[in-house]
Write a structure and sequence with these properties.
Chain lengths: 586, 77
């Protein structure tokens, strides 16, 4: 089938913070740029970010990028690439001030400078004491960032394609990426967006887990597209979890609840943290608490009919204290778990929050693959930025507020690189089979007989990921998880939909999203089973220690044969001395 | 075109809380809304995510009381 085709200098897939920062750079350079988004730009998931964006402005206390860099390398548990981390921390003040000039309503100090507050893991003097490094706009930093960037893009002439879903990359025989095939959700129309540069900024993929803080749109579409195009995904075993999300919903319950005297119970009503951390108990650090919760569930002491969650008790604090010290918690519990915490405990479970892995790029935002000689080779025409990319600045564990920074720094860098790579030449001819893959995916959905239910397949995937590849990982469970996820992936190849209408067919969109989720799930499970150490967010019961001699390397997963390969961490910064691996203690 | 299909996609948001509340609302109540209530619901959906969540959680009130009946349904979940 011949598809209609539109030509642009650059097409950006995703209108979150990273996609819009990149697009702005391109539009202001007078390039013709198309931005595709499944939802209206300011409804991208970046809107959820409250905490702030990290930059060593030193407006409240002395600070500099070397300290920020040290914290980020240490936070990454030495899996982050030090060239990229130096680049990010050095550039941070510049991109934050730039955003201020764009009109971002940052909180202010009394003398009118950007106000900064402390945030976990950000320290002065190479880890000595906490420092005020987070710049915020009240509790709506992400919201303000999206609105600021959107206004600015509209002014610069960026062309938005709202409620369009990109399906697959277009590649020619030389492997160059020539654009994407996308579908308009309203009409079902399929179109080729041809471009000299394709930039993926599709965000995270938390929806592979049963319990996730991510919005429903976070289905890892960019990762699925890359995997199907034969390119690898990097460090997918590293997912950050929060210990207490509402069971079955994912909405976060602040750690302040335990700070105010709430505690965790297993199905026997036992306050189990006393066994794992006799002194700190429920106030032990995040990883200790998460690990204890996962162990209780694994050993059959979880609550509920499936014995798959933990209870957070706070009724003993009394209605008044709950209301005064933990405002909003009661409403959240009632709304999302149907439980009134004044009377009953809240069901909670460790909840997936942030994906450290993603599409491998260098710090210019160019997508890279191994060159076969221990180095990197650029995939021509393809770029990635934001949570879908793995630069890698977060390594095995992301520091709070470094993600919004990542969007700004690498969104801009990728945009700049696109501009310098751009050649003044006509668009290449498209191979005749260029759009075959996405068209075959759509055709299959039309014709599949006795198809698997999309809802059932995705629910099974989320259950398998949560049970076998959660916050704390056990060898037998991982091995079983690999088998199970392969079976789910088989089923995902036979999904079918009842509703075949063209118009706003949510069922079709969800089926297409599952194609992406399942690639991310496979990559995550298989990479996790193979990594025989504990590092950052990857925490194994059988290998409790970091193993730098054997595992200070990045994982690469390929869809073809579920093959794994590894590549070295870039331990050499751009201009300063490397930070040598140390035990990570806070 | 079926109105509910369009609205179902408008319920895909940047905030998980809204995804949960809005999709449950559409499944449970949409069939029983009259034409005027559907229009009001669509107006509510035009709100930015954080404002809509504040409304749904009862942290703020609308200046314009017309949407109130639909908002009450959303709040009741
Ligand atoms: C509750 C919460 C709080 C957070 N707080 C903070 C914080 O305080 N500080 C911090 O630094 N980080 C925070 N984070 C992390 C941070 O918000 C995210 O990592 C970041 O916003 C991701 O931005 P992005 O631009 O990569 O993608 P997103 O903002 O997720 O945008 C993705 C875009 O891609 C589009 N898209 C996806 N697939 C397709 C497709 N197939 N076709 C077309 N378009 C597509 C979507 O429509 C969307 O526009 C938080 C995360 C959560 C969940």
């Amino acid at each position: 089938m011949a598809l209609a085709r539109r030509e642009f200098d650059a097409v950006v897939v995703g209108a979150g913070g990273s996609g819009m920062r990149a697009a702005l750079e391109l539009a202001e350079a007078n390039l013709r740029v198309a931005v595709l988004s499944k939802v209206f730009p300011t409804r991208s998931h970046t809107v959820a970010a409250q905490g702030g964006v990290a930059a060593s402005l030193g407006n409240v206390a002395e600070d500099n990028w070397h300290w920020h860099m040290y914290d980020t390398v240490k936070g990454s548990d030495y899996l982050g690439d030090q060239d990229a981390i130096e680049f990010m921390c050095r550039t941070a003040p510049e991109v934050v001030y730039e955003l201020e000039h764009f009109g971002m309503p940052f909180d202010r100090t009394p003398d009118g400078r950007i106000y900064q507050r402390p945030f976990g893991g950000h320290m002065q003097n190479y880890g000595r004491n906490p420092v005020e490094r987070a710049c915020a706009a009240a509790d709506r930093t992400g919201h303000a960032m999206l609105h600021t960037l959107y206004q600015r893009n509209v002014r610069a002439g960026t062309q938005f394609f709202v409620e369009w879903i990109a399906l697959d990359l277009l590649r020619d025989a030389e492997g160059e990426v020539l654009g994407v095939v996308a579908m308009e959700i309203e009409t079902g129309e399929v179109l080729i967006f041809q471009a000299h540069a394709t930039l993926l900024a599709t965000g995270g993929a938390g929806r592979i887990f049963a319990s996730s803080t991510n919005a429903f749109i976070n289905t890892g579409d960019g990762l699925g597209m890359v995997a199907r195009a034969g390119l690898p995904l990097q460090d997918m075993e590293f997912f950050q979890f929060h210990p207490t999300g509402v069971y079955g919903a994912g909405v976060l319950i602040t750690e302040g609840v335990r700070g105010e005297g709430g505690f965790l119970l297993n199905k026997n009503g036992e306050r189990f943290m006393e066994r794992y951390a006799p002194t700190a108990k429920d106030l032990a650090s995040r990883d200790v608490v998460s690990r204890a919760m996962a162990t209780e569930i694994k050993e059959g002491r979880g609550a509920g009919k499936d014995a798959d969650h933990i209870l957070l008790k706070l009724d003993h604090l009394g209605a008044e204290v709950i209301h005064k010290r933990l405002p909003g918690i009661r409403d959240i519990a009632i709304k999302f778990s149907n439980v009134d915490p004044v009377k009953d405990p809240i069901p909670v479970v460790p909840t997936a929050h942030y994906m450290m892995g993603g599409i491998p790029t260098n710090y210019h935002g160019q997508v890279v693959v191994p060159d076969g000689r221990g180095g990197d080779q650029v995939v021509r025409g393809l770029y990635a930025a934001g949570e879908c990319a793995c630069v890698s600045v977060h390594g095995a564990n992301r520091l709070g507020c470094n993600s919004l920074l990542d969007l700004l720094v690498f969104g801009r860098a990728a945009g700049r690189r696109v501009i310098s790579d751009l050649r003044e030449e006509p668009h290449k001819p498209l191979p005749s089979d260029a759009a075959d893959r996405p068209l075959a995916r759509l055709a299959r959905l039309e014709t599949q007989k006795a198809g698997e239910s999309v809802a059932e397949v995705s629910a099974e995937m989320r259950r398998v990921m949560q049970t076998h590849c959660g916050v704390f990982r056990f060898p037998d469970s991982l091995a079983e998880g690999v088998k199970k996820i392969l079976t789910v992936a088989e089923r995902a190849q036979r999904t079918g939909i009842q509703d075949k209408s063209k118009v706003f067919n949510t069922a079709r969109v969800e089926a297409l999203e599952v194609d992406n989720l399942i690639e991310v799930a496979l990559a995550t499970m298989i990479s996790a089973e193979a990594r025989k150490e504990s590092r950052g967010a990857h925490d194994r019961s059988d290998y409790p220690k970091r193993d730098d001699a054997n595992w200070m390397k990045h994982t690469l997963w390929y869809k073809e044969g579920n093959r794994l390969a590894y590549k070295p961490v870039k331990a050499k910064p751009l201009t300063v001395e490397p930070f040598e691996p140390k035990t990570r203690v806070y | 075109m079926s109105e509910v299909d369009r609205i179902r996609w408008q319920c895909r948001r940047g905030l998980l809380e809204l995804d949960l509340v809005l999709s449950a609302f559409v499944e449970r109540h949409f069939d029983r809304l009259d034409a005027r209530q559907v229009e009001l619901f669509k107006e509510l959906l035009e709100q930015p995510d954080n404002d809509l969540l504040d409304l749904v959680m009862g942290r703020t009130e609308l200046a314009d009381p017309r949407c109130k009946p639909v908002l009450e349904l959303l709040r009741a979940g």
